[in-house]
Amino acid sequence: MTLALLAMSHSPLLEHADLDSEIVADLEKNFEIARKFVSEYNPDIVVNFGPDHYNGFFYNLMPAFCIGCAANSIGDYGSQSGPLDVPEEIARDLAQSVLRDGIDLSVSLQMEVDHGAVQPMEIIYGDITAKPLVPIFINSVAPPFTPVQRVRLLGESVGRYLSQLGKKVLIIASGGLSHDPPVPRIATATDAQRAALMGQGGPLSPEARDARQQRVIQAARDFAAGKADIQDLAPDWDREFLDIVSSGDLTPLDSWTPDEMTRIAGNSSHEVRTWIAGYAALSAAGPYTVTHSYYRPIKELIAGFALTTAILD
Questions:
Q1: 179 catalytic residue (yes or no)
Q2: Which of 70, 135, 144, 228 has the lowest tally of Cβ within 10 angstroms?
């Protein structure tokens, strides 16, 4: 029937950072704009492009893309835990349609998702089960990365399927923009870190997860104080990216290479792949207009934080 898009940064630090009251008010004002946008659109179903942070996907088997036909939220950083309301038949049909288009992807009947997938639903609806939701994982933290062009083509394929579904679909893209949080990297990992990145021993214990979360929280405080040894935010890169996705022509992003993205905007800047897929999905249904755009570099969140809404013309 029709498509609409909400693309936004997420941050596990939203409920844990020492934010100035002016920043809190600024964020809440924009979250309220997003809530109004979604409420007025009133979708039948949500399709969520999201990353993972070594909570559901590990180097023992790391797909570039995966559609969840059933999914569970692990509840990290205090996010809501429990099963998502995944419409299994639609998820399966979507996966088959994307494969027919020549885009290789995986499917999961037991997908584990983290805050990167569910935080937008919590912010907008206050409940991760408020709407039926199909989660689509895009690898955004674990090199090697698929070329950006393939992400765009994935999004276009998803959009073609959704545009003939006969339902009002809200596409959520969750991630980015520039940021470089203290996530272990396989190339420089210790033996213990490598085992964790491989998923050895299964999901993290509650104690291990809490310890990891506390390290990130402390790193954010150090970063805001200018004491953390992590890469700075890249506002110019962020704004260029926002200009491209708002233009309606995503093809300039095809030439963006993973190495350059990492060098300029940090190891986790690859989460913008969720935005590329989301905007590409919307574009497959026709020309679109960005109705709201917000951007602010927020060191306390280790994030170039952005939020946009878009509708078909």
A1: yes
A2: 144
